[in-house]
Specification:
Strand content: under 5%
Helix content: 40-55%
Shape: globular
Oligomer: single chain
Radius of gyration: 14 Å
Largest sheet: none
Number of helices: 5
Low-confidence stretches: 99-108
Length: 136
C-alpha cells in the first residue's frame, strides 16, 4: 500500500490521544458519542442489548465510524467528532484502515485502553509488530 492511503493517520492519532482522556470517565465519552449521532441525525449502532452501553473501549469507538457504513456517513461522523472533541488534524478523505482498527468486540476488555495507551507512545512502531500506519 502506498503512503497516500494512510491519510487518516494524523486524525486517528489525535483522536486516540483525546480518547485516552476518557479512560476513567467513560460515561462522559458515551454521552459525547450519543450527542454526535443525534446532531448528525444518524442512528447510533446498537452496542448493547439495552441500547446504551454501560462501558465502551477505544476499539468500539473507532468501529463506530469504520465498520459497515458508507463513506458519506463516515465523513459526517468524522466531521462531528472533530467538532465535538476539538480535533485540529486534517480530516481524512481516504479510509484504507488496517483491519485491527475496525474490529468491534462483543465483550469489553479493560486491556484495550492499555493497548491504545502504549500504541500512542510508540511501543508498536518498530520490531515485529511494526506497521507503517503506527509510526509516529
Amino acid at each position: 500500500m502506498e503512503q497516500a492511503e494512510y491519510t487518516w493517520t494524523d486524525f486517528y492519532s489525535e483522536f486516540a490521544d483525546k480518547l485516552l482522556g476518557y479512560k476513567s470517565d467513560r460515561p462522559a465519552l458515551i454521552k459525547k458519542l450519543q450527542k454526535i449521532y443525534e446532531t448528525i441525525k444518524i442512528k447510533i449502532p446498537k452496542l448493547d442489548t439495552n441500547g446504551v452501553p454501560e462501558d465502551i473501549d477505544p476499539f468500539t469507538v473507532f468501529g463506530l465510524f469504520n465498520k459497515r457504513i458508507t463513506d458519506a456517513n463516515r465523513k459526517k461522523i468524522i466531521d462531528e467528532i472533530a467538532s465535538e472533541f476539538g480535533l485540529k488534524a486534517e480530516k481524512p478523505e481516504s479510509f484504507v484502515v488496517p483491519r485491527c482498527f475496525v474490529w468491534v468486540k462483543k465483550n469489553y476488555f479493560p486491556g484495550d485502553w492499555r493497548f491504545v495507551h502504549y500504541a500512542r507512545r510508540g511501543y508498536f512502531s518498530d520490531g515485529p509488530w511494526a506497521h507503517p500506519a503506527m509510526a509516529s
